[in-house]
Amino acid sequence: METAKKHIKKSLLSEGRVVSTAMDKTLVMIVEARKTHPRFKKIVRKTVKMKVHDEKNECQVGDKILAIETRPLSREKRHRLFKIVEKAK
To answer: Which CATH superfamily is domain 25-86 in?
Structure first.
């Protein structure tokens, strides 16, 4: 019998860096998107701050993480920690 792997849509995952862990079981991460401007051909950076649920308080400032979209957990939290990609140095 094969073990079934859970497939997760790539659109539900967000990759970013942790900028704050001041709250209990919550962290703030920054997601940066780069796009080329259609007319001026300049690369434009857009940053978005997200609040992410971290059940075990295992992240540190500077960690690179993956967060997955979930049901609303509070007024501002819409994501939860999926995986720590790289620990801060």
So the answer is: Nucleic acid-binding proteins (2.40.50.140)
